[in-house]
Amino acid sequence: MKKTKIDLKPEFHIQNYDVKQPTISLCMIVRDEEESLPTCLDSIKDYVDEIIIVDTGSTDSTVEIAKSYNAKVYHHPWENSFSKARNHSLSYATCDWILIMDADEEIEKKDAFKLRDVIKNDDVNLIFMPAFSKEKGCNNSSVYLIERVFKNHLDFHYDGIVHNALKYSGPFKTENVVFYHYGYHLSDEQMEEKYIRTSTLLKEQIENDPSNPMPHHFLAVAYSVRNMNDECINEALKAIKLFEHNNIKTDVKLLSYYTASAAFYDKDDLVNAEYYAMKSVTSYQDYLDGYFMLSLIYMRQREYDKCIKATNRYLAILEGIKSNPASSLRIPYNNIQNHWHAHTRLAIVYFEQNKEREGIQKLKEIVKIADDKSDPYLSVVKYFLKQKNSILAEKVLKLRLKDGPENKKVLYTIAELYEEHNKPDEALNYFKRILVFCPGDIQLQYRIGLLHMRQGRYSDAINVLESLCTKQRDHIDALYNLGISYEQINDITRAKDTYNKISDLDSENAEVLIRLGSLFLNESYFTKAKEYFLKTIELDKYLLEANLAMSKIYLSLDDPESCVVICNKILECLDLPRTRTIDSLNDLSKLYIEIGTTLLKQKNETLAAFSFEIAVILEPDAIKAIQPDATNPVAIG
Q1: Closest CA to 128 of 76, 183, 176
Q2: Dist. CA 568–CA 580, nearest whole Å
């Protein structure tokens, strides 16, 4: 019987289902963003279906860059309204969903693929996502939720000429798709331009809509960035009054409370600082920045138990935000980067409460989370130095050295601590410890040289400074102090040579001209000395010193008439009456006594002595008139 081959494979009938994936339009407004735009578009280009860019007047290569990413570019003149520009961009979008980004933003790489997933849910109209403000390569400085993605064709639009807000309706959700915003880290010039532009528009908005608290709030924030605390408080309180009077429910009110509290804190008005911080946490019990302010306030007020409670609350809330950024509010949390500062505050409190063991333990915990393991210790030290508690500051620094004996930053701080408390030998020992593993540190060698000088060890100073100047021949400060050290050991020839090296580098260095003039004057080389002092006067510097020296020079050259002219200039420098009758050298001598007495009252004993010396040259008997006028006898000669 013939066997028949039977195919037992099941037969599949494949039906093509046209499952339409939702599409995304990226909508942006730009102007002169050539530096930021490539980073932004590189991060998002593979996850959107079209890029819509409205340019409001770029003069750089922004438009060309946008087109290189196949963006659809539309040109609209700037109309002093971010909302108008933003709404123009929305009008060109053709996809199902709209994604909003600024040129100074980028999406987190590991989150970008989630965009397609989060818009599959058709039950919501809007998706809030967290945005971190940060500097490139640095930690995040703040976080907030923003209306990032929303459905197209629902007539959603933006309102507000500066800080535009999306007007939306219907259900929404939050998703942990993170974006980074770099726009608040600008150069000083860019910050100034932004402030002028923003404050002008906000003032215009206030004039047109005086009952709206929002422009008052944002103007307060603009003032706070510039440390204009009085102006900040004025606008923040206006915003708060309007929020409360009109019973407006918004997270922005919390930020107004915080802004007011921070400004009052900066003015050392702790009563009002605490009042507005408390209002913020009373309004929302998990308000991170409110508890951070309370932690600072209670620390300064030395209410340590309250400080511990507020600080621990801040840290607990912060942990929740870090684990789930989508739990943030729709306003910036400004203190997400201050966690180790808060821990440091707790360490300080323990030390202040004489709980040294707990303080040390807390410091060891902080080291594990700080970017630089020395920073927590140095922060504690800085606090105790400010409190003039150098003993505890020294103890904390030495604790750090046990873990890192070759820590330059800590060794420097200890050395400076000893230096400030007039313990130069101890300071010198720590500077020398640094020099062992940082032998090429020029500034450190300079500091060591200065310490030797302060101790009167000029030969040691010369050895250090000569070595330094061999390595860096244009270190003017080192050369200058080397010259002074030579003077102190009476090596005038080398002193002059050293000062001349400085003159070769900087021919208008008035300090050097004065010293060279003085050296030649002491050697009675009057013509040469005169040359240096006249150069100093031409520079309009050290006029008292130079003119007093010129007085002595003219008298030594038997030229009293020129001395009278110079005396008039000295009287002018000291704002003394200049309408005088001089009939004799004795009259002129009396003027120099008056000048010396005035200088004594100004605590300038060196120049006072010089003036008295000139008075005695003019009239030897003047010495009898000088001593009674001097509250402290001055050596003349």
Answers
A1: 176
A2: 9
Which pairs count as long-range contacts for 366-374, CB under 8 Å and 24+ apart, including other chains? 366/340, 367/403, 369/339, 369/340, 369/343, 370/340, 371/139, 372/409, 373/403, 373/404, 374/400, 374/404, 374/407, 374/409, 374/410
- Please give the span between the terminal C-alpha atoms of the chain, in angstroms, as a whole number: 143
CA distance 564 to 173: 87
Can you give the C-alpha Rg of the chain in angstroms? Answer: 36
181-200: pLDDT as tens digits: 986 556 778 778 888 988 99
Q: Which domain holds residue 330?
A: 188-337
**Domain match, 214 and 173 both:** no
Residue 103 and residue 221 share a domain? no
CATH number at residue 162: 3.90.550.10
What's the token pair of residue 174? 């939050």
Q: Does pTM surpass 0.70? A: no
Helix (H, G, I), strand (E, B) or coil at 487: helix
The token duo for 203 is 């003032």
Contact 373, 346 (CB under 8 A): no
Task: Let me know whether 212 and 159 are in one domain.
Answer: no
- From the list 178, 183, 176, the residue with the least C-alpha distance to 133 is 183
Burial of residue 632, with CB atoms counted within 10 A of its CB: 0-12 exposed, 13-18 middle, 19 or more buried: exposed
Could you tell me the pLDDT band of residue 13, with boundaries at 50, 70 and 90?
very low
Beta strands (DSSP E) in 338-409 are none
